[in-house]
Structures are given as C-alpha cells and as structure tokens.
Design goal:
This protein is an alpha+beta fold. The protein contains ten helices and four strands; from the N terminus they run ββαααααββααααα. The chain starts with a strand and ends with a helix. It comes from Shewanella mangrovisoli. This is Phage tail assembly protein.
Length: 188
Amino acid sequence: MFKPDMHHLVWPIEDDKKQQLNSVPVKLLTMGQHREMSKAHKGKDTDLLRACICASTGLTLSELKRLVTPDYTSLQEQVLELMHTSAAQLIEGFDSSAEPVLLVPFQGDDGQDKTSYTLRPPTVATTDLMDTHKDEWDRTLFISSSCSGFSREELERLSLPDWNLLQERLIDFLEKPADFFRQKMLKS
C-alpha cells in the first residue's frame, strides 16, 4: 500500500487559515481525477499542472501561489513523477508474472475491496469491438475494462500508477507476439 510522502517546505508559508504550513503531503491522484482535470483545463498545461499539484497536496491555488519557486519546483517534480510512474516501480518485490496487485486498493462497484485483478489478453473479436469505438479514450476504456474486469467507474478509481501499469500491460497484449509472453511465463 502506498504511503504519501511529506514535502517539507524550505520556506514555510501561511495557509488560507493564517496557520504556518511547514510541510504538505504528496498523494496519488486517481485516473478519474486526472481525466476530469484534463477536461477542465484542456489546452492550458500550466493550469492543469497546478490543478494536479493542488489535488495531490491539498493546497489551494492561493496557497500554491504563495510558495517560493524552489519549493514549487520540488512539488511539481514529485507530483509529475508520481503521475507518470508505474505501480511496478512503487511496489516492493513486484512480480510481473503474477496477478497484478493494486498499489492503492479501492472499493469496487460491488462494495468489496479491490486489491488485485486478473488481466486477460484480448481476443481478436474484442480488439475488433474496440476499433468500433469513436475516439481513442473510449477505445482505451473499452479494452481496459474488457481485459481487467473493472467497470469504467472502477477504472476511474485506479491510482495513476495502477492505471499506468494496466496500460503498459495492455500495450504489450496489443503489440507483442506470443513468444514475448511465452518467455515471461517460462521464467515464473
């Protein structure tokens, strides 16, 4: 399970409640949060990045703007790294041949805690159905749901590193030949 890092500010600020703020947590975003922020800030990269930093740290935009640039740059680097990393890099002892374990478990649509999932390669019929979806995002959600068993709503609850790992594995399924997987299966 992922534990948020604390970023200790070199130059503490006063928060919106006039309290001194010496450190902020750096938490993971979910795929759904990122998707909503991307829609809200389409074409405005700086605004999107700042929204992601605020959502990850709990800072308000006015608090974020009070940060000195070196502290802001450190937070920006931490948040971007967590947004772009795969769960495989954050899970100690990660085994790529095993059933994927979630870095951040969540409650599924059925009310049960989801801690892992079974990933199945798509059939040719499934990839044909994927190609009937009108845009890239719909195709991505369709194939992700079809191969993981998660609903679209459950996919939105995945942490970005869990989502990134799922996408890496799906890309392998869609692009690699059977021998690639045969070698991996022989190692386990």
